[in-house]
Design brief:
Elements lengths: L3 H9 L7 H10 L3 H31 L6 H9 L10 H5 L3 H23 L3 H25 L21 H5 L29 H11 L6 E5 L5 H9 L4 E6 L2 H13 L6 E5 L14 E5 L4 H14 L6 E5 L15 E3 L4 E5 L6
Parallel strand pairs: 1-2, 1-4, 2-3, 4-5
Antiparallel strand pairs: 5-7, 6-7
Helix pairs in contact: 2-6, 3-6, 3-7, 7-9, 9-10
Bound molecules: S-adenosylmethionine.
């Protein structure tokens, strides 16, 4: 068995890419699932950090070329963005801006090759790898969140954004977006036809929400308008004790989500159901947590919120909103939200005093 940290250091120094695939293939045979997951996630993360560093370096060099020393420039990043990758200190201190650019090229290839390698593994292997990957990503997103918090961030500081960095994970889940969905012409709901990736919450949003929700053991979680199912798959992998249901109007999306859930053997506790939530005969089941991401027309929002408000009279519930869904939350039923990402993500806890 070999350790991924030393291997990652080695590939960053590659200048000839022809051998990269063979090298990663042979590494993948002699490292554990855990190390392969960390290799995958750290290389994706590092690619984003390097891009961010290169942009910052360019900006600083434009402003005051004589004052930018590469050593001093890099040092700053080891107390912040590069903190999870301290083992790469020697690579960065021996490098220069050209070294960063060629390392980024290697990492772009590495991400693709590792994905192909992962897809040759069995589903149980992929499941373990995904669980470890999500854990690592959760730590990384927490760091990003802390670095970008208003207290830490100085005015005018640019900030690293990992919002879409990990979207490649969709390929591990096999969330193939169906871009030519054609719902019936008379439907009035807001279905984001053809939006693909655009209908999905980012992994950053999902994992930050999970971190701060403090989900109770064995609790129930419902995604209202579950799209291709990212939320349920992430919740299901990280918390096998939670019962998750996603309701979604577009049946093709439900099928993609359920297939991923079955492949990863999550289907005992993660289910996706085709359902029009505007149907007046449908009653939203009781749960502890509801997730809503900009899903509905005004009329459907009104129907759904009335049901959730009624549920607050029976139990304590939390509603997670992403985007504009927060505008439908009425303050007489819900306490002030816990806000993230400038209010793009909010956690609202019900206020009612239960008898
Ligand atoms: C922006 S996406 C969010 C997907 C997922 N919750 C996420 O955050 O990744 C909203 C989803 O709500 C679904 N939707 C809209 N109106 C609906 C309705 N009346 N009933 C069920 N689903 C609906 C849309 O088809 C879309 O897939």
């Amino acid at each position: 068995m070999i350790e991924y940290k030393s291997e990652l250091k080695k590939i960053l120094l590659l200048t000839e890419f022809d051998t990269l695939e063979a090298q990663l293939n042979s590494i993948s045979k002699v490292i554990s699932e855990k190390d392969l997951a960390n290799f995958f996630i750290d290389s994706i993360y590092l690619k984003s950090v390097i891009q961010y560093m290169a942009d910052e370096y360019w900006i600083q060099s434009q402003a005051a070329p004589a004052e930018v020393s590469f050593d001093r420039f890099v040092k700053k990043f080891f107390s912040a963005e590069l903190k999870p990758l301290l083992f790469l200190h020697s690579f960065f201190s021996d490098s220069n801006i050209d070294g960063l650019h060629s390392a980024k090229k290697v990492l772009v290839q590495t991400e693709k090759i590792l994905l192909n390698i992962i897809k040759t593994k069995s589903y149980p292997y992929q499941k373990t790898l995904l669980q470890i990957s999500l854990q690592r990503m959760s730590e990384i997103f927490e760091l990003e969140y802390q670095l970008n918090s208003p207290q830490k961030k100085k005015k005018d500081d640019s900030k690293i954004s990992l919002y879409r960095s990990f979207d490649i994970l969709d390929k591990v889940f096999e969330l193939d977006y169906i871009l030519n969905e054609t719902p019936s012409a008379d439907q009035k709901e807001r279905l984001y036809e053809g939006a693909g990736l655009g209908v999905q919450s980012s992994y950053a949003t999902t994992l930050i929400a999970m971190r701060y929700l403090n989900l109770g053991k064995g609790s129930q979680f419902i995604d209202l308008g579950s799209g291709y199912g990212r939320i349920g798959l992430v919740v299901g992998l990280m918390r096998p004790d939670i019962k998750f249901i996603g309701y979604e109007y577009v049946s093709e999306r439900v099928e993609v989500a359920n297939k991923a859930s079955r492949n990863l053997q999550l289907d005992q506790h993660v289910r996706f159901i085709t359902q029009d939530l505007s149907d007046p005969h449908f009653k939203i089941p009781a749960a502890d947590t509801y997730y809503i991401f900009d899903s509905f027309t005004d009329e459907t929002y009104a129907t759904i919120m009335a049901q959730l408000q009624e549920l607050t009279q029976q139990r304590k519930i939390t509603v997670v909103t992403k985007g504009n869904a927060k505008n439908w939350i009425k303050s007489q039923f819900w306490s002030e939200p816990q806000e993230f990402n400038d209010g793009n993500l909010c956690l609202f806890r019900s206020k009612a005093r239960l008898i």
